[in-house]
Write a structure and sequence with these properties.
The protein is α/β, with parallel strands linked by helices. It folds into two domains: 292 residues, Aldolase class I (TIM Barrel), CATH 3.20.20.70; 88 residues, no CATH class. The chain has 15 helices and nine strands. α3 runs parallel beside α4, α4 crosses α6 and α7 runs parallel beside α8. It is globular. The two termini are 43 Å apart.
Length: 432
Amino acid sequence: MELGKKLEILSAGARYDVSCASSGSDRRAPPGGMGRNLPAGVCHSFAGDGRCISLLKLLFSNACRYDCAYCMNRASNDIPRASFSTQELTKLTLSFYRRNYIEGLFLSSGVFADPDIVMERLVEVARSLREDAGFGGYIHLKAIPGCGDRLLKKAGRYADRLSANIELPTAASLSKLAPDKSGKEILSSMRFIGESCAEAREDSRRIAATPDFAPAGQSTQLIVGATPDDDMALLGLAQSLYRRYRLRRVYYSAYLPVGLDARLPTGPPPLLREHRLYQADWLLRFYGFKAEELLNPALPNLCEEIDPKSAWALAHPEFFPVELSRASMEELMRVPGLGATSARRIVSARRAAKLKPELLPRLGLVMKRARYFLSLYGRALETSIAWEGLRPLLMDRPPASRTPLLGKAAWSGPSGKPMALAVQSQLEFVFP
């Protein structure tokens, strides 16, 4: 098969994996090599559906012995099959890089053989790029669940980021749609990667020459809407993964129908639900929220009309108004329309001078939202609207409309088992 045809098939097979961000690594090419991965990450743009298009995003092979119902590359799907060789992928990556088409490589694969064999092929591509070609750009490798720790350790030496996709949030869903996969194997890979990353960081504090291990950390992906699992299950699992394995990101991918199967839903992908999950995930990672604050058994799904932070605020009138002149960073960051940067600016500005209402927008506050929840020196910033009347003012869209206004282009990546379970037992419940 011609290389161009392989590229067409294997790039198409990789487009459903959204866990391909590229940040957090500071790798440089060796003397005489090429490329550099800047600390801020690979410069990337987003396609109309919100997916990253700056990386050469490919499958090593789309042949797969697994028959996951939601996957285009599943064993029972009658599609053209192709595989690269290590030499082909190395030359292709370097050729695209020299032409300034890409700044890095995202490499995954179907499980066409024993997991160790598949992982060994991926690692060999990364090794060839690093050692033979002196490539210093970004490399993201998919960790194949079930492969040995030795190969994962080797992969972490060459890759900037590793990812093992969970895809479905419960053991029941995994058994129904992906019976060949093992939740325990996926979590075992995550655990090893997380421990190795932490070990490398700790060693580097004492020994400067410590080799990097996946310096951009690890990520995973959850599919949204392929199963009846609610947002509480998705966010609860994400929270547990962040706490236990220190994942850099959990990505949410709205289910896109790729074939007919009675086990799968029909209809358009739940893009707005995906968007809300990203917003809630942002609150978990950067704003000090807990999943059980945003959702509960009585309200297991995020509101479509209102963003999660505003929905939380409306449900907790006792917390407001927040006094700008003395509120802590944690309190400020719970105010709708006020983010981490603007909260830091407020804390800094009030140390130097008295805050004035007219200067607040210059500090980064989105006043059309924030003013309903703030007071300054004992005086509320907005008194003309009763609390009961705030909801319509905070809606992203009219409640009667069911057409999503926010597609993947407005993806908030840059800008979810029962919550009563303890975090320590969360994953054992999800994947017994």
